[in-house]
Specification:
It contains six helices and 19 strands. With 269 residues, the protein is mostly beta strands.
C-alpha cells in the first residue's frame, strides 16, 4: 500500500481531517501524510501520501501549484480570507490590475502554518499575539484574470511551492480571498481525483527523471550506495530496476572528483 491518493478536499475540512479520514480506511499502522496544506475554506487537490510515499514528501511538496481564486475587493480580512474579521473599505479598483509574475517577495500571513519557535503561526495569532513572519521569495509563473463582476474578480494562478495566494490577493489592494481552489500540483490534476484509488509509487514519482539499473548497480543503490552518473543528471533522479522504484538519488561528487547519484530516499528497506 505505497503511493498517492489524489483527493478533492471539500470546504470546511482541514488537511489533517482528510489524512485522518484516509488513515481510518486503510490497514492499521499504514503511514499516511500529505504534501501541502490547504486552508479549511479552500477546496481542491490534496496529495495524500500512503506508505513509503511519505518518505518522498519533500519532493511532492516542491512541485509547482495551480489555483483558481475569487477575490473580493473593497474590504480586507484579518486572515486574508472569508474566515477572518472583515473590514469594509469601499475601495474597489477599476480597469485592469497589474498582476505580478516572476520572482515576488511576499510575507506569509500571520494566520499560516509556518512554524515560529516550534509552534504554528496561526496558533499564536489566534491567541492575539503579534506575529510578523520574514519575507520570502516565491515565483509566480502565471497570473491571469478570468472574469470580473462588481467587486469580485476571478484569477488563475500558477506558482512555486511556498506561495501564499491569500497574500498575492491582498497585495492587489483592499481585497481578500473569498474562494480558493487548487486545481493542480505539478503533473497531478484535481480532474483525476479519486479517493478510492492509490496511484502506485513508481507512477506517482514519474515527474522525476529515471535512471534504469540492473544487477550489481541495482543492488548497490538498494543498500544506499552511490552509482555512477551518466553526466546529464542535474537534480533528483528516480533509480529503478525491473521490480520498480529503488530510490530517489541526487548528484554528488565523490572524493576522486567523479560524479555519482547518491540515494537520499530509499524504498526497498
Amino acid at each position: 500500500m505505497d503511493g498517492v491518493i489524489l483527493y478533492d478536499k471539500p470546504p470546511g475540512a482541514t488537511s489533517h481531517d482528510i489524512v485522518a479520514r484516509v488513515r481510518r480506511a486503510l490497514p492499521r499502522k499504514t503511514r499516511v501524510g500529505h504534501a501541502g496544506t490547504l486552508d479549511p475554506f479552500a477546496t481542491g487537490l490534496l496529495l495524500v501520501l500512503v506508505g513509503r510515499a511519505t518518505r518522498a514528501q519533500r519532493f511532492f511538496m516542491g512541485l509547482e501549484k495551480s489555483y483558481v481564486a475569487v477575490a473580493r475587493f473593497g474590504a480586507v480580512s484579518t486572515t486574508g480570507d472569508r474566515d477572518g474579521e472583515i473590514t469594509e473599505t469601499g475601495v474597489v479598483p477599476e480597469g485592469d490590475l497589474a498582476l505580478p509574475t516572476g520572482v515576488v517577495r511576499q510575507r506569509p500571513p500571520a494566520f499560516s502554518a509556518v512554524r515560529v519557535d516550534g509552534e504554528r503561526a496561526y496558533a499564536r495569532a489566534r491567541r492575539g499575539e503579534r506575529v510578523e513572519l520574514p519575507e520570502r521569495e516565491v515565483t509566480v509563473y502565471a497570473f491571469e484574470e478570468r472574469w470580473r463582476d462588481g467587486d469580485r474578480r476571478c484569477f488563475a494562478i500558477r506558482c512555486s511551492a511556498g506561495t501564499y495566494v491569500r497574500s498575492l490577493i491582498a497585495d492587489l489592494g483592499d481585497a481578500y480571498c473569498e474562494e480558493l481552489r487548487r486545481t493542480a500540483i505539478g503533473p497531478f490534476s484535481v480532474a483525476d481525483a479519486d479517493p478510492e484509488r492509490v496511484v502506485p509509487l513508481g507512477e506517482a514519482l514519474g515527474f522525476l527523471p529515471e535512471r534504469r539499473l540492473a544487477g550489481a548497480l541495482a543492488r548497490r543503490a538498494s543498500h544506499g550506495g552511490a552509482v555512477p552518473a551518466l553526466g546529464d543528471e542535474r537534480g533528483p533522479t528516480r533509480l529503478t530496476d525491473a521490480e520498480g522504484v529503488i530510490a530517489i538519488a541526487e548528484p554528488r561528487e565523490g572524493r576522486d572528483g567523479a560524479r555519482g547519484l547518491k540515494p537520499v530516499v530509499g524504498f526497498r528497506g
